[in-house]
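Researcher: Here's a chain I'd like modeled. Treat it as a single chain, no partners, no ligands.
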Amino acid sequence: MARLQEHEGKALFKIAKMPIPQGAVAKTPAEARQIAEKIGKPVVVKVQIWAGGRGKAGGVKFADTPEEAEKIAATLLGMTIKGLLVEAVLVEEKLDIAKEYYAGIIVNAQADARCPVVMFSTEGGMDIESVPADKIAMMNVDVIRGFKIYDALNLANKVKVPSAHITQVARLILGLYETFKNYGARLIEINPMVVTKEGKVLAGDCRISIDDSSVIRHPELGIKVARESGTSPTELDKIAWWVEEKDLRGTCYFAEMNNQIQGECFGTIGYHGMGGGAMLGVDGLNKQGLRVPDFADTSGNPPASKVYRAAKLVFSQPGIDGYMLGGFMAANQEQWHHAHGIVKALREELPKRPGFPVMLLLAGNKEKESLEILREGTKDLNARIRIYGGERVYDTVGLAAEMKEMVLEYKKERKG
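Model: Modeled as a single isolated chain. Structure tokens:
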């Protein structure tokens, strides 16, 4: 899923005619001052990053004057908060809060539902998971029937929202559902929904995650990589998404990680996983003191061309000391597509890396034929290549230990 930043989500709320605080996004301290001057009253300056808990991390500050807003923006811009670089801040009017609510929508994936579920709570500003059940109203939505204003009123009434602002609350919930539907969201929240001392109801903060398959239908959102991530997409992430976007057969997932090893690091392994067991390989390598700088996954029966591109992305990372294809599961996809794609990538990459360590684990449908393709396609390559099938599919510890052994030999050989 692709997560929108707060100002991007609120721009969608504005299109839906949902009330939001007055404000705008700033990328320089001078812009922050100009926005505060236009608002003409105390403001809040909020960092724009893909992470919750910004306030506790020091990313939300209040300013009484435009000059103060400029100084705060100068401090926040360029900071790293929760591992994320702050490149923009949202400058908004400071709200005089009387009460906070919560409204959210997720997809209920249970077999007896498989529909959106709308949630509303009288306890805003905190994690919905920690709110007592008697303070939450929920409704599974029949997507054919839709969600109506009286449904929103019923939700608010169930948790005894005062009549003075129940209509405003219901309209915000309805607008939330319309935004959820119109942009193909998987998750959408207003937290908190603020009731001011003047009696106005506004979306104080928001979170929106767009479904991968919806992104291509909404180029106006400007999403470069349709996946939720803790960091901004790298160039390799963008290339991987380009592969995925152009070919819907199976999965070609790639993400660069900041995966540091506690203690001594013996080497860096370019990792190429397959399906549900892929993370087992990462864990095994880490426990052997081997760093994994990426997570790649080709599953769902992708063609050889997609597997090849994923392998090339893994190899394109600088400083890797080995490559592992971690098929830690017996897959029902036809594995010879993987075998052909991997062989092509290895025949292009290994001649440039004499003695390079390669671990290939492939199990499942067409396993025998696939392993033969791997052996025949790599037998004349000058590299440390070990190929295994289903007999080692659960041997995460043993394979990671073998990988470490090969890496140490390779590094020693290069030094010599």
